[in-house]
Here is the input.
Amino acid sequence: MKIEFDPAKDQANIEKHGISLSRVSEFEILSFIEDDRKDYGQIRYRAWGLIGGQHFCLAFPHRQGHIRAISLRRAHREEIERYVPQT
Here is the structure.
């Protein structure tokens, strides 16, 4: 699946969360939900998964077969416990 993101959004994500949106290509999705906390004007999802063995949270819409990365950050312990299946 193709990953796309806005370069300005990538820079903001690096400054805020210390990780580039380009790393989404390494993201192994373990679970995801539709993000219906507010009206974004499009269907948006939150996913939890791994990059290099560490848990991350990704916010994205799915557009024409592409993931449009909005935000990528380390997942909170509570999110991991709630959304990531335990094996």
In short: The CA atoms of residues 29 and 51 lie 9 Å apart. The first helix runs from residue 7 to 17. DSSP finds two helices and six strands in the chain.
